[in-house]
Specification:
- By secondary structure, the protein is mainly alpha-helical.
- The protein has one domain.
- 76% of the residues lie in helices and 0% in strands.
- The chain is built from 10 helices and no strands.
- α1 packs antiparallel against α4, α5 packs parallel to α8 and α6 runs antiparallel to α10.
Length: 229
């Protein structure tokens, strides 16, 4: 039986793990049909779809969980989340608009590696192994770019109508940011409670080991899909 204080990181991690095709970058069948059939500008529906997509994007949220794990000030949270948003917004918009497609399995495997990277960073592995600390802000931006290609690759699969493409993409991106903020708020509330307990530092390392394991699981899942498909 896990210690009482360990249930918080376990629940947070389990919420992010893949439990079906409807999660991560996949789009629900009803939404998929809607996206493929409509033409013209549809701002509110695409805002909703973007928010829904991010709220179920466990790999994005798991990476953000790692990013904010040791951030205590809202100013620092805002800086890192803004860098991540800048990265994934840029490649998502440009990737779809200019039809730059990357195999979904491969880009999602890279996203899984971003989770592994951040977990190891939180565990202080790079300083112990290599004697230096990578630039965490640059890494957050770079992995944000990768996450954006994950979004764009899936959107391209559904062949959006060119009529109203740019406004719809911008609306979808606004929705993604709204969904990200809502999910991040929930994570920060849970983290704030956990940090006030005596077990936070005791179980922080274990939580990051679990996050690293989840990242490797995502990599294995996507690479298996790539070779099988």
């Amino acid at each position: 039986m896990a210690p009482a204080r360990l249930w918080i990181p376990l629940v947070l991690l389990l919420l992010f793990l893949p439990f079906g095709e409807a999660l991560a970058h996949a789009v629900a069948e009803g939404d998929k049909g809607y996206i493929q059939e409509i033409t013209g500008v549809h701002i509110l529906p695409f805002v909703y779809l973007g928010a829904k997509h991010m709220a179920t994007g466990y790999d994005h949220l798991l990476f953000l969980f790692g990013v904010v794990f040791f951030l205590y000030r809202l100013k620092h949270v805002a800086i890192y989340v803004s860098l991540f948003a800048l990265g994934h917004s840029t490649t998502m918009l440009l990737g779809v608009y200019f039809n730059i497609g990357i195999n979904s399995y491969l880009i999602d495997a890279i996203i899984g590696l971003s989770v592994v990277y951040k977990a190891l960073d939180n565990m202080g592995a790079y300083q112990r192994w290599f004697g230096f600390q990578p630039n965490t802000k640059a890494a957050t931006l770079i992995f944000g770019l990768c996450h954006g290609f994950g979004l764009s690759s899936k959107i391209l699969d559904y062949e959006l109508s060119p009529d109203g493409l740019l406004p719809n993409l911008l609306a979808f991106n606004v929705g993604v940011e709204i969904g990200q903020l809502l999910a991040l708020t929930a994570v920060l509330i849970a983290m704030g409670y956990w940090r006030r307990t005596v077990g936070f530092w005791k179980h922080a390392y274990t939580a990051n080991v679990l996050m690293m394991t989840a990242g490797f699981m995502l990599v294995g899942f996507q690479l298996t899909g790539y070779f099988v498909a």
